[in-house]
Amino acid sequence: MGFLEPNMPRIDVAEWRTRSRSERIKPMAQHIAENGMGNPEVFFVLYAVKIALYIFVGLCFALTTAGIDGWTDIGTWWSEPIVFQKVVLWSLLFEVLGLGCGFGPLTGKIAPPMGSPLYWLRPGTIRLAPWPNRIPFTGGDRRTVVDVVLYAALLASAVFALLSDGAGPVAALDTSIGLIPPERVVPVVVILAVIGLRDKVIFLATRGEVYGSLTVTFLLAGPNVIVAAKLVMLAVWLGAATSKLNRHFPFVVATMMANNPLVRAKWMKRVFFRKFPDDLQPGRIAQFLAHFGTVIEMGVPLVLFFSHGGVVTYIAAAVMIVFHLVILTAIPLGVPLEWNVFMIFGIASLFVDKAAIGLADVTEPWPIVALLAIIFIAIVIGNIDPTKVSFLPGMRYYAGNWDTSQWFFTEAASQKLADHRIGLGLVQHKQIEKLSTPEGTEISLALGHAFRAMYAHGRGLMTLWDHVIPPGRDADYTVVDGEPVAGYAVGWSFGDGHLHNEQLISALQRRCHFAPEELRVLILDGQAIHRQWQQYRIVDAATGELERGTFRVSDLVSRQPWEHDVPITVISKAVGLNHS
Fold first, then answer.
1. With 481 labelled, which of 44, 62, 156, 348 sits at a CA distance of 20 to 30 A?
2. 556 in Cβ contact with 567 (< 8 Å)
3. Cα dist from 325 to 304, 307, 341, 342, 511, whole Å
4. Residue predicted with more confidence, 219 or 435
5. Contact indicator for 94, 100 with CB cutoff of 8 Å
6. What's the pLDDT at 405?
7. Strand, helix or coil at 548?
8. Whether the Cβ atoms of residue 62 and residue 456 lie closer than 8 Å to each other
9. Helices 337-346 and 41-63, packing angle to 10 deg
């Protein structure tokens, strides 16, 4: 790849166009296997600068605290409990401002590179309530002035807490500065809860399952804050590890390492696959890393929590720091980069510096039990029934087993989105058309489809294209992943199919009035942990659900990215719907 220019597949476009859909995907998948997505290196510099700014501003907020002074004296104050609290609140603010997960060109956001406040401070934009038919005063999908005020209040309350001084000495924590006064934390928690019921997008964008949960722990006193925060982080690790107990995860590891900018040599990228170029199943190294990484994430955090200091704690902490550095330097396309930086800081601050503080120091057990029960229930339901809980509170990170969707746009549908000014800028394929040549646009979109096909579930999605597209109309549709559609329509996206399923389709239909066959969406539910199949739905924006069915995971993992012949079991189909 070049510093400013992408490394795109070198093919004869005219000849490539004559091939079948599967034959067109094959060279794209092979390109990804030894080049990754070929993004310009300047992108990675951008994200490195963003990480540096995240750290710098976090330190600035810490230095606003009375009793904490001096850039040159960081070693004397970095482990103060209030510093950890401010890092959590700054991370929450950073994320809800759209600067963290889902930011920038690696997530398909170019102009503008983010949405978040540009949408959520603007009445009339789309909001998605989690339970609009069950919770009073949350119905509808149009942002009101009240929603804008709530979002602005969340930002203001977070800053108010960040600028707080400590409440005074806490002997049990060996601090003369103390913790943030709970009365400054309460507004953040209350506003986040209320705004989450009005718009799940904003709650998820705060990474509420991590930073929101940790903020709740700040309502406790003394050592209870530290123990509760440790337990929240432990739940994150164990929940994420549990979600990786599937057959999808090795495909994630192989693709992520092939896309790793630090793995530069092509031969190194190729070793993560079974036999490049004709067998792109995960190789032994990818499978080992997937299984070994899951064991580490499941076991080492428990050692961290129960070891209470000494050599064992230091070794466990070093292992988990390396674990997060591997994820960080791979620059995953959801770019949860600052989250990994935060986890590394949390390891050092909570589990190393305060290793001696444990369950025996708890004096307020029941609030901690209640918080952990909510987290645990979300994880269990998210794994048993992924349609009910977002993959974020379900903590199904990186597992390769996500709810996802693909959107099939006709030119008329794309024009209606633009005419009704649904989002800022243009939806992804129109942005690419504006920035590239027709040939470049075709290759870019095909590369994106191949990247989806590198994951096991992508084989099933590509097979289902013939169920979605009316016979003889392949050329009428442009297929776009649901992620950039959500980023365009609601201002934020981060690998969560709950943001671009039927709820978003209905909101867009109410605004754009698509005609039948103008916009169709293929929706895939994540695999439930106790089942060996996945369910899909095909929805026409104008007429509703067209088809529902399943395919087996065993049929996905036995195929190559370009083998789109996965056996499909159709459960229900609208009358008159035929497959090509």
1. 44
2. no
3. 17, 22, 8, 11, 44
4. 219
5. yes
6. 97
7. strand
8. no
9. 40
Which 3 state secondary structure label does DSSP give 533?
strand
Structure tokens at 420: 């009704």
Is the distance from CB of 395 to CB of 236 less than 8 angstroms?
A: yes
- The pLDDT of 489-500, averaged and rounded, is 94
Contact (CB, 8 A) for 200 and 215: no
Strand partners, 90: none
List beta partners, residue 547.
538, 573
| Cα–Cα distance measured from residue 315 to residue 335, given in angstroms and rounded to the nearest whole number | 27
Residue pointed to by tokens 């990215």: 561
Tokens of 13: 């476009």
Residue 284 CA neighbour count, 13 Å, CB half: 0
Taking the C-alpha atoms of residue 462 and residue 456, their distance in angstroms, rounded to an integer, is 11
Q: How many CB atoms lie within 10 A of CB 453?
A: 28
Size of the chain in residues: 580
**Helices and strands, number each (H, E), in the chain:** 25, 8
Cβ atoms 250, 287 nearer than 8 A: yes
Sheet holding 544-552, edge to edge: 478-481, 404-409, 519-524, 533-540, 544-552, 569-573
How far apart CA 526 and CA 296 sit, in angstroms, is 24
Residue ranges of alpha helices (H) inside 271-347 are: 284-307, 311-329, 337-346
Structure tokens at 414: 């794309």
Q: For residue 567, what are its two tokens?
A: 């056996």
Answer whether 0.90 is exceeded by the pTM: yes
Q: How many CB atoms lie within 10 A of CB 145?
A: 9
Other CB atoms closer than 10 Å to residue 3's CB: what's the count?
10
Beta bridge partners of 479: 408
10 Å CB burial of residue 10 (0-12, 13-18, 19+) is exposed
CA distances for 43 relative to 29, 38, 48, 388, 495, angstroms? 22, 11, 9, 35, 20
* Joined tokens for residue 512: 């754009």
Q: What is the pLDDT of residues 424-457, one digit of tens each?
A: 999 999 999 888 888 999 999 999 999 999 999 9
Query: Do residues 223 and 362 lie in contact, with contact meaning Cβ atoms separated by under 8 Å?
Result: yes
Residue type for 270, please?
R
DSSP H or E stretch at residue 416? helix 411-419
Phi and psi, residue 418, nearest 5°: -65, -40
What pLDDT shows up at residue 575? 74
Enumerate residues 6+ apart whose C-beta is below 8 A from 278: 560
Q: CA-CA distance, 231 to 217, in Å (whole number)?
A: 10
- Beta-bridge partners for 282: 273
3-state secondary structure 225-261: HHHHHHHHHHHHHHHHHHHCCCCCHHHHHHHHHHCCC
Cis peptide bond upstream of 112, omega within 30: yes
CA distances from residue 432 to 14, 35, 37 in whole angstroms, order as listed? 20, 21, 15
First to last CA, the chain: 39
pLDDT at 1 over 60: no
228-265 burial, b at 16+ Cβ within 10 Å, e below that, comes to bbbbbbbbbbbbbbbbbebbbbbbbbbbbbbbbeebee
SS3 content of the chain, % helix, strand, coil (to 5): 55, 10, 35
